[in-house]
Amino acid sequence: MLNLDFGKEITNIWIDNNDEVFEKSKFANKPFKVLIKPITRAEFKDFNVRSTHATKGLDNDMFNRLIFMYAVLDWENIGMGGKIVPCNTINKETFFSRYIELSGLISVCCLRGSEVQETMFEDEVKNLV
Which of 33, 54, 95, 108 ranks highest by number of CB atoms within 10 Å? Predict the structure, then answer.
């Protein structure tokens, strides 16, 4: 019998400037960390539905905003004018609106985080067999 833990929670993941997503960006040499919550398939589908218009199709900006606002839980070493900026709803909105490239890359990490979790789960299953 294959004994799986369906109650296992998805864990949050810290990403930083060393992540491959930032490798070729101008942020690769800037030390920062962001705590993200990986997106589940159900959440992905919900965000997709909420950001799709009947006549215009998918609004990519809205889709990325929903992911960013939901999945970014905390950050370290992100500031403005030499002062650390706390991670809260208002600052996340400002961050997303002003720093399009960086917030987009972080959203990619949020989506990829689910794949990382699935790979870890699949590896667990393989080890059980």
Answer: 95
Domain spans, the chain: 13-128
Across the beta sheet with 72-76, what order do the strands follow?
Answer: 13-16, 33-36, 72-76
Nearest to 21 by CA among 102, 116, 117: 102
Q: How many H-runs (helices) and E-runs (strands) does the chain carry?
A: 4, 7
The pLDDT of residue 59 is 92
Tokens 């690769």 belong to which residue? 28
- Paired with 102 in beta bridges are none
CB 66 within 8 A of CB 39: no
More confident residue, 116 or 52: 52
Q: CA geometry: angle at 85 spanning 83 and 90, to 5°?
A: 145
